[in-house]
Amino acid sequence: MRKIFIAFLLTGSFYNLAAQTKLIIKGTVKGDTKGHNKVYVYGESIKQDSVMIENGAFTFNIPWENGMVPVLYNEYEMKENGGISPYAIVVEKAGTVFLKDIDITKGLRTGKISGSASAVAFQAFDKGYEKLEKEIDSTLGARFPGKDYNDTSYRKGYDGLMTQKMVPYIKSFVKSNAGSFAGTYVLLRNRYLLKDQDMENLYSKLSPAQQGTKAGKKMADYLKGLKASAIGRQVNDFTLSTPTDESFSFSNLKGKYVMLDFWASWCGPCKAAFPHMKEVYQKYRGDQFEILGISIDKDKAAWLKELGVQQLPWLQVHDTKSISVSGFAVTAVPTAYLISPDGKIILKEIGFDSNGNGEIEKKLKELFGK
What we know:
There is one protein chain. Helices cover 42% and strands 22% of the residues. By secondary structure, the chain is of the alpha+beta class. The strands form 4 sheets. Strands 13-12-11-14-15 form a 5-stranded mixed sheet, with helices on one face. The radius of gyration is 24 Å and the shape is globular. It starts with a helix and ends with a helix. 31% of the residues are buried.
């Protein structure tokens, strides 16, 4: 009897250990799915997958990795609403998370989350964020009827309201959740809205444990990149691989003006910019000017395939060392830097103006007189 009892304990312990190596997401759904029963999951370190809603419920079993944030969307949204509304579940550890009573007609975010303190906190933050977004949109709609973000006045008004309303909300949440993965994730996700000093202050308030998470380390790398990429700073030399797997160092370009172009194969605006970039390159290429394309693609094969499609005539390397973050604080692509012949940063430009009105192109005209 004693042997049986010990065996039972060992079996139970093994089961619990196995369960803790997975993240289990259990959802329940109400409403008519109209036959659109698939739910999808994706995210960093998560293999894209799907499951079926059966008898009003679905379950994901995801191999656990610290710092993962599964993102869900569903077939109903795609087929009935004409798009998707990705829903992030910010979990701090392996185990089971519940998303109950999802109204299929209104999206996954209508479900009530439980089983993870961090996920619960983030859901509350996300609802508040969405409410503020609607208030801002309503204010701008009344102030600038018929306009959108492409209009200069609208854009200025939007940026002002985000600073006035959203930034204090983000800062308050991070301070109140400095010991939670939710606070760390919110800081990382919204860093582009914050001033450099605010980011540093908020990062310093994170608990040591949170600073040690994958998101916390990414935030530290980003802050490092901000300092390293300030205008006038000397670029720290870096070495990355070319499409033929040869090593190429930035210092090889010393003595030339260099435009660093951060891009990705999945980036539509990047690819839309290439035809005009080819014209710019044709005009200025030579002993005094070079472009170095730096792909932030995770998938090397996708990068190589897109290079075959685009046939870009300038140098290309693959950012396998997160130089884009730790060296240049890149948050969006395309992002470009213009570097002086002695290796100092002259300009930074997010996006690329195909009409020739971008700051880097203006500077090149000034430098080379054409």
